């Protein structure tokens, strides 16, 4: 069993990999970075997972990368069940996000209208 010291925070893992914390978070979101552990809201990266990720991404040229088939999903992620998002999945996700943003915008405008009516004392809807 690994000890707690075998796991790094996002900031520590980013420093070890010489990338920004934002890059590592982006990789995590898109499924391109090293495997990680989530315990509630806490995210940790195993030292071994970081090492495996680095070793899986060593290439001598673009041709070697193409021949290895690593232009999409990393091999480590294929093994643990991560897959690249299809165009239809991406479209559905983005549509859902747009609908959520529109709904939040409507709610904010409605709250603003109600607030201004309370301040002016105008409750009948007439201007």
From TrEMBL:
InterPro entries, per the entry: DNA-bd_dom_put_sf, HTH_17
Helix-turn-helix domain sequence ranges: 7-57
A Pfam family it matches: HTH_17
SUPFAM superfamilies with a match to the protein in the record: Putative DNA-binding domain (SSF46955)
Domain of life: Bacteria
Protein's name according to its UniProt entry: Excisionase family DNA binding protein
Species, as recorded: Granulicella aggregans
């Amino acid at each position: 069993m690994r000890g707690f010291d075998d796991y790094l925070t996002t900031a520590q893992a980013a420093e070890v990999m010489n990338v920004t914390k934002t890059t590592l978070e982006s990789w995590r979101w898109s499924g391109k970075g090293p495997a990680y552990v989530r315990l509630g809201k806490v995210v940790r990266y195993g030292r071994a997972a970081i090492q495996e990720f680095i070793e899986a991404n060593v290439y001598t040229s673009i041709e070697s990368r193409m021949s290895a088939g690593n232009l999409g999903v990393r091999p480590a992620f294929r093994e643990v069940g991560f897959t690249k998002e299809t165009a239809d999945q991406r479209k559905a996700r983005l549509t859902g996000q747009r609908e959520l943003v529109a709904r939040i915008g409507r709610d904010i405008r409605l709250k603003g209208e109600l607030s201004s009516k309370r301040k002016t004392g105008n409750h009948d809807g007439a201007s």
